Amino acid sequence: MTWSETQPLLSQASWDTLYMVGWSTLFAVVGGLPLGLLLVLTDRGGLLQNLPANKVLGQVVNVARSMPFIILMVALMTFTRSITGTTIGREAAIVPLAIGAVPFFARLVETAVREVDGGLVEAVQSMGGNTWTVVRKVLVPESLPSLISSTTTTIVALIGYSAMAGTVGAGGLGDIAIRYGYQRFETQLMWITVAILAVVISVIQFAGDFAARSLHRRGGRSGPAPRLRLLRAEEPAAAAVDKVA
Amino acid sequence: MITTSGLTKIYRADRSRGREVTALDGVDLHVREGEVYGVIGQSGAGKSSLIRCINLLERPTSGTVTVAGQDLTALAGRGPRAGKELRRARSRIGMVFQHFNLLSTRTVQDNVELPLEILGTTGRDRSRKALELLDLVGLADKAGAYPAQLSGGQKQRVGIARALAGDPKVLLSDEATSALDPETTRSILQLLRDLNRQLGLTVLLITHEMDVVKSVCDSAALMERGRIVESGTVGELLATPGSELASALFPVGGDASGPDRTVVDVTFHGEAATQPVVSQLARTYNIDISILGAAVDTVGGLQVGRMRIELPGRYEDNVVPIGFLREKGLQIDLVDNPADPAVPAVPAGPAAQALLVKEGAK
């Protein structure tokens, strides 16, 4: 194949990949951020402690995460068709990508939010803030550098997933690599797609790291010792006993 | 201003059988308006639980908390979450923390504005108030800095400015100086003292450092294993025989030079301080007195002197001279002489004092 033949193919595929990854990242953040916060808040010692709810959420996230993406994609086909009307094409691929990425991002959010110093939560409560204030003024802003890193990780993972989605008719760079590179022995074309993916991922990683680092440099820690983890001040029974014991 | 009665806090592990920790065991505390009240105790004594129960960051298991005439435990209701009423009450109680707890992603000014945002103050009023407060704590030039760029003492000043943003009548200080060096500790305590005087702020502070109590407190309480074992104004404490807090606040050292000696601590404050008691004692009873240790200092704004003296002979031989000192209005505490096992340990408390006074009068 000549360059004039492959060039439009590759640019369309790159655009398709970015389109799928862009939208599914958006959905992953919109869905995963509240889910991750709820995982922390409903846990033992959390501000909204609710252990049964926490167990259920945790299990749902675990099951979704343990499912290989390719299986998830197939399992969700009926659901995808009911939303987009088709199971083929980049729009259809966004549905399983987003659903696969939400629990992934939620776990990363959970880890990031747990790192926030419980003393800050206590401080805002002592000022008369409610749970929503704590989330808005403390948990999200203070974990923002980590949340940005988590988003970067999620985008990179989604690029990988989107290549898998390419194998079942979603289009994108993965689709090119499989159809032309693997099935038609166009090894050169396969390597070009790999190179494009490598460049895209490097740029995203670099941009994400840069954003996280510049936020971090501005902030830094406020206290010398990070306290345990987010304690719910109203009823810190178990956590406090552990601390005392 | 702050009253707790029968305050009890028991921590239970949810699932374990019978594993309980009693952090507070019936604490009755009374802090008067406009005073600086220090609660001192070792770690694990329940100080942190106590201060967190005052603004109900922790729910007491039983007992009541009243701040500025408002029964906070009644506002709290049954549910685990703080209702609107309780949150409004909390916003009128300032709190300062050991590790400052400043938001690292906000500038100093934005940190001070945070409580005002929660109160719903408008933008311009917020920044005016925040700058005023920063000026009050001496950090007007740091408004645009981030907490990470400040020293520990400066961070705590920001913490204090933030605590004052809601115009509180009461300030709770949770080991505010424990993470600071001695020099900075002094300046932060001085600031708390100034705010107490200028704004008529009632301050309840908890600490494990006796120096903190000594330099700023009007009253103090000693906590041990969830109970308050001694409390009162500094003057009252010093006048209490056998008071652990008084001797810790105002220590005098020195051991007896040998057996068959009586060692007593003489505490004088007020007019008794000016009398030449030692020479009078020596002349009247013709005994030789050695001074083992002595100090004069200001504790909680009171001029106090304390002296440890040694009299020859056992306690039985010295009942009369000791009675003489008591008549002069001095406070006498008998010290155990470790070199002399024959002297029984003096039982502490008012009963022992009454006994000694009676013997002295003979």
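qc> Chain A has ten helices and no strands.
qc> done
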